[in-house]
Write a structure and sequence with these properties.
It contains 16 helices and 16 strands. The strands form 4 sheets. It has a 7-stranded parallel β-sheet with strand order 10-9-11-8-7-12-13, with helices on both faces. α2 runs antiparallel to α5, α2 crosses α7 and α5 packs parallel to α6. The radius of gyration is 26 Å and the shape is globular.
Length: 459
């Protein structure tokens, strides 16, 4: 029997080797093509420096007008993507474009055109004792690579911010939004050609894993890469990339209801943070409540019940909600976690899950210090909030929470570039080196030193 098996395996191996070789050749050809693409983008990026700020603004306004005029075309492409996704998928809301959302995207782009240029700003100006004049001046990064999932609005947001700041952009969208992204980039290219601008300054890569790998290794072509999506995507990009990366997106967001919190205010804040739009990274994932306020928990959650939010509560919170919250929506956190890990051995804890859906955790704490410890253990450095009328508790929370955005008596739903008055955003950075929080025009520029002398030499 064994010799027969050996013959079979030998024949299969002989058959597969040519196939493997063909796949290797195909990957090499793809890599060569993408390298040529990156080179064209790099070359095109240089010409952006010749445009004036007013020219950039005029083109942005023209693209915004085209978005409104071509709404039927964009919605048709988006419908093609939506037809392939289950409506129950939390990503469905992110993927969906509507007439109003396109109007909002166009309005954001027009707003970006009204913002001051981030380029040419003199950040530092001094003259040394030897007469040399030093100026530190803001300049574009050059080429920014963007990797994102089912978010076609990002295509327009990234273009507007990159174009305004003099950067070219290489876009790598997910396959779920490929038709929407292609329609958006075609619209942008058409407008750029009308104004005599090389369309290579906005390039959409194929929606394949191979294209992602080539982009992350495009040293010398991509000056900065920004992933925008879930935790797995961000971890993959960070661990794989050879080009510089800024981490954005993943948010495990908390709201701490303090012993001195106002119930009516807390109810509004918790409801807005959780329900305004559940599929975004600033949505509430876990409510922390001081044990002395458990009697107010059912009141705090009554609007959540109407929105059919599933609550995974610890033992104390479960008992406080039992009989006051729909049984079909109330779960014991320990049981939920066991079930979750049985279904997926790599699953997170209940307490560090970014739900992106109508679900959240509720955890009881015996002090502000325990709330702070919980956030330090399970938070992602994105956005955190406290509801309290105690100035000392507010001050301590702001000082001790290590996150990009820390709120007092306000919902985390405000973590957004437009809400911060920055125009559209390219992402929300959760890291500390460089940009942090909503990233807009200033955050996607760097600087260079200009030194002017009159013949000085160094001893």
């Amino acid at each position: 029997t064994f010799p027969c098996i050996k013959v079979v395996f030998a024949n299969v191996y002989a058959y597969l080797c040519p196939v493997k070789g063909l796949l290797t050749i195909e990957r090499k050809i793809l890599g060569m093509k993408l390298k040529e693409t990156f080179q064209r983008v790099k070359t095109a990026s240089k010409a952006l420096g010749l445009l004036t700020d007013e020219q950039r603004n005029e083109i942005l306004r023209a693209v915004a007008d085209a978005i409104v005029a071509e709404t039927p075309t964009l919605l048709k492409a988006n419908a093609e993507d939506l037809s392939k996704m289950d409506k129950a998928n939390p990503m469905y809301d992110r993927l969906q474009l509507t007439e109003q959302r396109l109007l909002d995207i166009a309005a954001d782009m027009r707003h970006v055109s009204t913002l001051p240029s981030p380029l040419g700003r003199i950040l530092k100006d001094k003259t040394l004792d030897n007469g040399l004049r030093l100026q530190r001046v803001s300049v574009p990064f050059g080429v920014i690579g963007m990797i994102y999932e089912a978010r076609p609005n990002v295509t327009f947001d990234v273009f507007s911010l990159c174009f305004k700041s003099g950067n070219a952009c290489v876009l790598k969208g997910g396959k779920d939004a490929d038709a929407s992204n292609r329609a958006g980039v075609e619209l942008i290219h058409k407008t750029l050609r009308e104004y005599g601008v090389n369309p290579d300054v906005v390039t959409l890569l194929p929606a394949t894993h191979e294209a992602t790998g080539e982009m992350l290794n495009a040293v010398g072509y991509i000056d900065l890469c920004i992933p925008r999506g879930g935790k797995r995507l961000i971890n993959f990009v960070r661990d794989t990339a050879k080009v510089p990366v800024i981490e954005t997106g993943a948010g495990v967001v908390h709201c701490y209801f303090d012993k001195d919190g106002d119930v009516e205010m807390g109810k509004r804040i918790i409801t807005n943070a959780k329900c305004r739009r559940v599929s975004v990274c600033n949505a509430l994932d876990c409510l922390l409540i001081h044990e002395s306020r458990l009697d107010a928990l059912s009141k705090l959650c009554e609007c959540l019940a109407r929105r059919e939010v599933k609550i995974h509560a610890d033992a104390k919170a479960y008992e406080a909600l039992k009989g006051h919250y729909p049984d079909s929506l109330l779960y014991r956190a320990e049981e939920s976690e066991r079930k979750m890990k049985a279904e997926d051995h790599d699953a997170n804890s209940i307490w560090n899950t970014e739900w992106l859906s109508m679900q959240m955790g509720v955890k009881t704490v015996d002090s502000e210090d325990e709330a702070l410890d919980h956030i330090a253990t399970y938070g992602s450095g994105h956005s955190e909030s406290i509801v309290s009328d105690n100035p000392e508790a507010q001050k301590k929370f702001q000082a001790m929470v290590d996150a990009a955005c820390v709120y007092v008596n306000a919902p985390t739903s405000f973590t957004d570039g437009a809400q911060f008055g920055l125009g559209a955003e390219i992402g929300i950075s959760t890291q500390k080196l460089g940009a942090r929080g909503p990233m807009a025009l200033e955050e996607i520029t760097t600087y260079k030193w200009l030194i002017t002398g009159n013949g000085q030499i160094r001893e």
